[in-house]
Amino acid sequence: MKKTIAASALIALSACSFDNYREAGASIDRGTFGIATVNNTQIHSGEKQYRIDLANRFADEVTSTVTFGFDSAQLDDQARTVLRQQADWIRQFPEVRFRVYGHTDAVGSSNYNYALGKRRANAVVAYLSRQGIGRDRLEAVVSLGKTQPLIVSQGRERKNRRTVTEVSGFVERHPTVLDGKYAAIIYRDYVQSAEVKTTLSGIASAGSESE
Question: OmpA-like domain spans which residues (predicted)?
Answer without folding.
Answer: 55-171
